[in-house]
Prior knowledge:
Order of helices and strands: HHHHHHHEE
Largest sheet: 2 strands, antiparallel
Radius of gyration: 17 Å
Distance between the termini: 28 Å
Number of domains: 1
Structural class: mainly alpha
Number of strands: 2
Amino acid sequence: MKSMILKALNPVFLALLVLLGIGLQTSIFNSYPLMVLQPDIVLLAVIWVALRREFLEGGILTLFFSYAAELHSSAPQGLYLCTHMAVYLTLRGLSRYFLFAKLPQYITLALGASLFWKLFGLLFLQTLGLGAHQWRHTLALLFPGAVIQGLAGIWVFRLFEKLDWMTFKNPRAKHVGDDDVFLEEETLGEGTGF
Length: 194
């Protein structure tokens, strides 16, 4: 019973982690030198739910994450919704043909998704007539931002994996009885690929 409740609460805990990340991201990285080094916790969460959740659950969480990101930014309304949903749907399509199970693959996806997300956002702004002054800034920070995203992904993906283990969302996490909890002998980082 305890494992079923924890499994049902996993999306809530994940959403709270992302909201905490957005809060830290917008408060710590709000001045110029640190703005360049700002990781995007929402993009990493979108990658996670695209690969680790069912289509409907992942889509709803992506919409929620995008809405929360838009509340904390001055970007045009709908920018984060469109760009994050494009990343989500692209990764869902890729996951049908490729297997993404290990941390290096997730880091590679974080690098690629960061590049795709920024370029798609720039294209979106250009169609609204707002992208004329963004090209130079975006292209200058495109690759450094992707590297920061990949580095942040190392810790964020491990945190998400740990949350899935603790809430039994990971299929390898097993339970015995109602109150006794048993996790496979694999520890985080050894047998799970993380």
